[in-house]
Amino acid sequence: MTAELDFENWTCPVPLRDTPAVVMGHGGGGAMSGELVEHLFLPGYGAAGAATELADCAVVTAGDTRIAFSTDSFVVKPMFFPGGSIGDLAVNGTVNDLAMVGATPLYLSAAFILQEGTAMADLGRIAQAMGAAARAAGVRLVTGDTKVVDNGSGDGVYVNTSGVGIVPDGVDIAPHRAAPGDAVLISGDIGVHGVAVMSCREGLEFGTTVSSDTAPLHGLVAAMLATGADVHVLRDPTRGGVAASLNEIVRTARVGVDLVERDLPVPSEVSDACNLLGLDPLQVANEGKLLAFVPAERADEVLAAMRAHPYGAGARRIGTCVAEHPGMVVARTALGGTRVVSMPIGEQLPRIC
């Protein structure tokens, strides 16, 4: 075949891995996002972008102080959904990125890209939601920026937030610390946020209203650390869900994870929605849950501390970190078989955060 390939007229059920232009899958938090960072951004940045470990939050030092620094952008559609809005999602999302390295969140920035014609009433609701979420999380919004694009060039309101926090002495939480024998814990039901946004956007009903789980998790993390356990890894499974987060961890640490499928906390409404639409709950986004890798001998103690906190009441153990099959996540099914839990390629549900 010698004819030039016509990418524009190709169709595929999932985004193509090798494309001449950006596609939606590049923003999904899965394999395509990782490839974009590895093969485009990092080479472009060169030495200016050198990092020892890619994560949602960086830890840098200033004298004897370890500073956590994170940034994130939010483009969720619709801007308002059951249980939250783009405003509290932006605050909580950045607070949680800081919390996943054990930091105490302190300050946030907020930058807005507004489409001309956006209702002032909607923008006011978003600002109020951000203020309420910041107060609830105990952080301050200290700087920001606003830009406006032509009508039709955007989609209402996009928000970028950056956050700064302090990592306490003795806390060392990072993906490379996952170790064989660690218990893998999760703080509660999975897939709720993605289904809440999808049901609102598509007008789907599942017999009950599904509300987003968006919440600040630094208080839960503090309760876990207060046990004195050496928490090895924390991750909030947002874009790409539990599947993407676990795959990123095992590839960084060069370990494997064995999940027990019957122990995964998938609520019935999420299961019903995923069965209806052919989705994997492990790949559906969460905004108020965390995964933790902790030494097995301290798992019960950490679980008790999590369950005593409002945002960890449904915490449970879902698997084990193993030396076998490094770089791979495997789930044991109810029938006694196993399946590979792969890294999502793009995004099952676009524009969910």
UniProtKB/TrEMBL annotation:
InterPro entries, A to Z: HypE, PurM-like_C_dom, PurM-like_C_sf, PurM-like_N, PurM-like_N_sf
Domain annotation PurM-like C-terminal: ranges: 180-325
Matching Gene3D superfamilies: PurM-like C-terminal domain (3.90.650.10), PurM-like, N-terminal domain (3.30.1330.10)
Pfam families named in the record: AIRS, AIRS_C
One GO BP annotation of this record: protein maturation
Secretion signal span: none
Residues annotated as domain PurM-like N-terminal: 56-167
PANTHER family linked: CARBAMOYL DEHYDRATASE HYPE, HYDROGENASE ISOENZYMES FORMATION PROTEIN HYPE
The family this protein is said to belong to: Belongs to the HypE family.
Record-given protein name: Hydrogenase expression/formation protein HypE
